Structure formats: structure tokens, C-alpha cells
Amino acid sequence: MSEIPNPAPTVLLTGASGVVGQAVLARLTDCTVVCLTHSTPVPGHRAARVHGDLTLPYFGLDRSAYQDLADRIDTVVHCAAVTGFSVDAEQTNDLNVRGTESVLAFARRAQAPLQHVSTAFVARRDLALDGYGSARPEIYLDSKRIAEQAIVESDVPANIVRPSVVIGDSVTGRISQFQGLHAIAGALLKNALPMLPLEPDTRIDFVPQDLVADVIAQLVRTGTTGGEYWVTGGPAAPTAERVIELGLALGRSLGLSLDAPRFVSHDMIDRLIRPVFIDALPRAQRRRFDDMLAMTALFNTQEPFPSTYGHVPGVTSFSARSLEDAFTTSMRHYARAKGMVRPSEVAA
């Protein structure tokens, strides 16, 4: 591992419109940031933008523009990725694998270190992740593993950052796009979660987006490379039973009438629930159910993730209580955004 301080570097940021990308952009106000954008604009920010496509040679730029961009960049932060479980293999690999190879080629041309955002769930090699209808989490995870391997085997100085499930900002709860865990907890707040296919003592590992962004921003500022950083709750991650308790407590404090879901096995869902209730649903609803089921499968272990982000200078670890507070804050924001309670009650 090496550390070469680089004050106020110029950063090429991919995926700036996504959950992690937007949070990183907000943390790099002391840097010059160039956002490589494709189809989705970066809302509410004055960072410089270059329209490009990670899946095309030279990002789809002409060679002189590509070289000019490389000459300007000191550090690359790669957040862009397909993260959905229902996206086909070709599209997933196109961005997650070939897109990462394209970013590596650019970083090599720019002689710039790379901060690559992967996922902590690459560690879930012992789980059977197929058989969830349209949801294919194994395609996503395999693509992230292949991308990591390409980075490890390259000559580009790099870090691999592996967050677990990302929730909203720990202070405001805000997030650019609600994620799978929001959908599960949201169903709880709507009293539409009669059962949950998890063991009560399964760890639900999540981290607030500002923590992930702080880790990446500090790695950019210090110029640190050659590390793998697990940005996870680890042993501090709450159990599924505790997450349900927190959700019920929040909902009831907001005046919602809620019932506690029953913990059941995945096998029960497959044998009894899917054939009778799920298969008859419209396609979009079946897809949402399959995605939620696949996410619970990813959590389905009592073994905690590694948690090593505390080794990054200037980043403070989150305690179990801090993670619980961040979850409650994130779900309070979800309730307000979805109009589930009056704004005055949610803000209280």
C-alpha cells in the first residue's frame, strides 16, 4: 500500500448520478471534478461534465478529446455500474466488466490512481443465489468479481472499495434513488410484509451513503492505493429481528398501525407462497418480489462481513447504535417521500 498526498486533485468521476456517485460528488468540493455522463444528468451540481460511454473505445470520444481529458485527470473514481438483479447478463457485463476495463485503460493513459467501487457481497460465494424468477443476483456478483480481478491483475495503482447495502444519508436520510432494503422496510411501514424469509439472527448489513463517500473522498485526498476497504457494518450490523423492531417502532411513532412479520424459510416461500400468490401477479410486481427475495438471500448468513474502512485516515467507524439511528433516519425520509404520513409528523 502506498500513499502519495495529492492536494486538490482533478478527479474523473463515473456514475455521478447514482447513489454513491452523488454522495462522493458532494464530498469532493475541494477538488476539481469532471463527471463522465452518459444518459442520466447529474442533478443540481456545477461540476464539469463530459458526455461519454464507458462501453465504447475511448469513451466514445475522438482520440484528441480522450487524450486531452487524460492529460487533465489526477485521480479516477469509478462508481458507475449495473446493480439491478433483473438486468440481463449482456447488459450487466457490458458496463460492469468491459466498462471497468475501459476505465482501467483510461487511468493507465492518465497515469492516475483508481478508486473502484465494488460490493461487499462478492464475499457471498457460499449462498445459492439462483432460482428467484427474473432476479439473477449471481450475474451481478460474478460481474463485480471479474471486474475486481481485472483491477488486481492490472498495473494501475488502485483501491477496491466494497460497501454493503447503501442506505440514505445518516443525518438527513436522503438518497438519490431508493434501494432494495428501502423496498423491504417500506413494505413493513405499509403493513404489507406478513412474512420475511430470513432467520431472526441473520445480520442485515447496511451503511449510510455519507460513510461510503467519506471513505472514497479520503482515499482520493491521501493518494492511498493498493488496498481493499470493506465499508460494512460487520459485527456491528443489526440482526433481522432488530431491524424489524426498529421499523415497527418508527412506524408506530408515526401513527401507523403495524403488525410484526413472521420469519419463514425461503423454502416455504417457494413451495407455498409463490405458486398461489406471486405467479399470478403482473410482471412488474413479480419482478419487485423476486428482487426483494434475492436480496434476503444475500443476507441469509450469520457470518459478518469484514469491516476495514476504519483504517482510512480521517474516517470514524459507525457503532451499532449509529447504524441503527441511520436506518431509522433513512426510513423516516422514505415515509415522508412516499407520503405515508404528514410531513410535520415525519420531521418531528
Task: For this entry, give a set of tags.
two-stranded antiparallel ribbon; alpha/beta; 348 residues; single chain; Rossmann fold; seven-stranded parallel β-sheet; 43% helix
Q: Would you give an account of this structure?
A:
This protein is α/β, with parallel strands linked by helices and 348 residues long. The chain has one domain (2-347): NAD(P)-binding Rossmann-like Domain (Rossmann fold, 3-Layer(aba) Sandwich), CATH 3.40.50. The protein is built from eleven helices and 13 strands. A seven-stranded parallel β-sheet has the order 4-3-2-5-6-7-12, with helices on both faces. The protein has a two-stranded antiparallel ribbon with strand order 1-11. Strand 2, helix 1 (19-27) and strand 3 (32-37) form a beta-alpha-beta unit. Helix 1 (19-27) packs across helix 6 (209-222), helix 5 (180-189) crosses helix 10 (320-337) and helix 7 packs across helix 10 (320-337). The longest helix has 22 residues, at 89-110.
CATH architecture: 3-Layer(aba) Sandwich
Radius of gyration: 20 Å
Percent helix among the residues? 40-55%
Based on secondary structure, the structural category is alpha/beta
Report the order of strands and helices: EEHEEHEHEHEEHEEHEEHEHHHH
The CATH class name reads: Alpha Beta
Spans of 5+ residues with little confidence (pLDDT < 50)? none
Give the tally of structural domains: 1
- Percent of residues in beta strands: 5-15%
Report the CATH topology name.
Rossmann fold
Question: Please, how many helices?
Answer: 11
Shape: globular
Q: What number is the mean pLDDT?
A: 88
